[in-house]
Amino acid sequence: MSVNLELLDTVFEPTEAYVVGREKVREFASAVFATAPIHHDVDAAIAAGYSDVVAPPTFPIVIQEKTLQQLLSHPGAGIDFSRVVHGDQKFEYQRPLVAGDEVVAKLRVTKIQSLGGHTMVTSESTITTTAGEPVVVATSTLVIRGEEG
Amino acid sequence: MSTLWEGRDIGDVLTEDSVELSRDSLVRYAGASGDFNPIHYRDDVAKSVGLEGVLAHGMLTMGLAVAPAPAWLGDRGFVSSYQVRFTKPVYVPAEGAVRIAVSVSLAKVDEPTEGSATLALSVSTQDGTTVLGKAFVVVSPR
């Protein structure tokens, strides 16, 4: 199985709307040792100028993951999931996600590169509110290890 | 925001912290994130794909490494960009824990009018292995 190079520039359908939940933010924050009060305490978040608890910076992976599943399970992609390693990750934020946000994500394949028998697939998942406000762009590079590796 | 950088030089360490990761931490992160890849809780599955054993989710390491930034920024700014390269696996023993040290230093200050700055993260396990490369956080005024 090898990666289908025609994936480049493919844009997937937007994911179903995801509502950022207050308890999910707290649970995720605890799991990444993020103890800042703005992630847990509504009053602290409001005092800092937000409408509700603030999601930690890597929280958007939860939403991006839904788009990566679209990519990995796409029948024409030719990606062998058991050979996939996460190479690079980047988030670029307009603002942090906040509990109560309702968002959708749309993935585009931006780069496919072969290097030393491995294939690197880079994709950008643009996360916007259902009202159309851009919030964060999450970019992942997945390394698909070569067959002999 | 400028007060954040006043008196600081490029290369100054702004904050240092360390976290202990055990198998419990991985299970907690799996549930919180929805990433239930068994290489993060089953040694046999991890070994079958050529790993030494159960390893931490890369996104858990990425998440804990940036955790001090919002606390340190308070309401003076927000994380406007965050990137890492996953360079080495973080193996987590069935008993005990692995300690991950995070050091945040000032890498670059943008022009005063912009008020944003780039922080470099150094993230390593207790044996000195760097587990995240090219790890940079940009913080910007709100």
Question: Ends of chain B: how far apart?
Answer: 9 Å
What is the CATH C-level name of the domain at 5-20 and 57-144 in chain A? Answer: Alpha Beta
Instruction: Report the principal-axis shape of chain A.
Output: elongated
Output mean pLDDT of chain B.
91
Low-confidence segments of chain A, given as residue ranges, are none
Number of E-state strands of chain B: 5
What fold name goes in the CATH topology slot of the domain at 5-20 and 57-144 in chain A? Thiol Ester Dehydrase, Chain A
Return the string of H and E elements of chain A: EHHHEEEE
Number of helices of chain B: 5
Q: Please name the two chains that share the biggest interface, counting residues whose Cβ lies under 8 Å from a Cβ on the partner chain.
A: A-B, 34 and 35 residues
* Number of β-strand runs of chain A: 5
CA-atom Rg of chain A in angstroms: 17 Å
Q: In whole angstroms, how far apart are the ends of chain A?
A: 14 Å
Low-confidence stretches of chain B: none
Radius of gyration of chain B: 17 Å
Mean pLDDT of chain A: 94
CATH topology (fold) name of chain B = Thiol Ester Dehydrase, Chain A
As a percent range, the share of helical residues of chain B equals 25-40%
Helicity range of the residues of chain A? Answer: 10-25%
Reading the helices and strands of chain B in chain order gives HEHHHHEEEE
